[in-house]
Amino acid sequence: MLELININKNYNPGSVNELCLFKDFNLTVKDGEFVSVVGSNGSGKTSMLNIICGSIAVDSGRILIHGEDITKQKDYIRQRRIGRVYQDPSKGTCPSMTILENMSIAENKGKPYNLGRGVNKAKLETYREMLRPLNLGLEDKMGVQVGSLSGGQRQALALLMATMTPIDFLILDEHTAALDPKTAEIIMELTDQVVKEKKVTTIMVTHNLRYAVEYGNRLIMMHEGKAILDKAGEEKKSINTEEIMGIFNKISVECGN
Ligand SMILES: Nc1ncnc2c1ncn2[C@@H]1O[C@H](COP(=O)(O)OP(=O)(O)OP(=O)(O)O)[C@@H](O)[C@H]1O
Q: Rounded to the nearest whole angstrom, what is the distance from the C-alpha of residue 46 to the centroid of ligand 1?
């Protein structure tokens, strides 16, 4: 279980650009939940993910994973149990390295290996077997630089790499936003498959309201640092895209956006 308890976060305190984003923000994510998070630009979605991953510090409040307080834990320590896929695939993969090197690094996440020891040619066949079900032909490109792959191939690889080691949480930060509609569908199907297979607790930020409705078992809408809508289980199943779009538009109008 992940718990964000009374989180407070001010950006640029004391300056004209001061922004009080989170004020006593609370969120609990139960094990096995697949939470879709939607919300307008600037509502705090990525900041929330960054707080969970430790890329930004909170001013006050506590972050617990399975009851353990990780608020002060460094981000690189947290990464051992969190897999993250970004909108920009170059953040989740190393473009100048080959698929083999990238997968080796992903498999050795958290281990004290340098790259020389980390690149594991003995694992070549294992990696190929992991890539084959993606149906993207990546298993025949082990020596190819990741930067030369298509966006979809890279996001599929990033997803696989994020879940190669045992993790408690998978964090998806608009991971289909830079893909064409057809490729985005493929990556969403793959995401759903991976989440179900690995039974990993997942938080997915997306601007695609249909994906938020169709995938996952909980839907949260953020607005100005608050979760203004939170539907899970049967309630979530009964929501349709038009309804969510209606709520989204109503808020935008009220805020003059
Ligand atoms: N490091 C930072 N320093 C100062 N302000 C920040 C920082 N990160 C985010 N913000 C501000 O906090 C607010 C929330 O940003 P955040 O990126 O979390 O929103 P978001 O919901 O993910 O938006 P988007 O949908 O555009 O990605 C914005 O007003 C943003 O400008």
A: 7
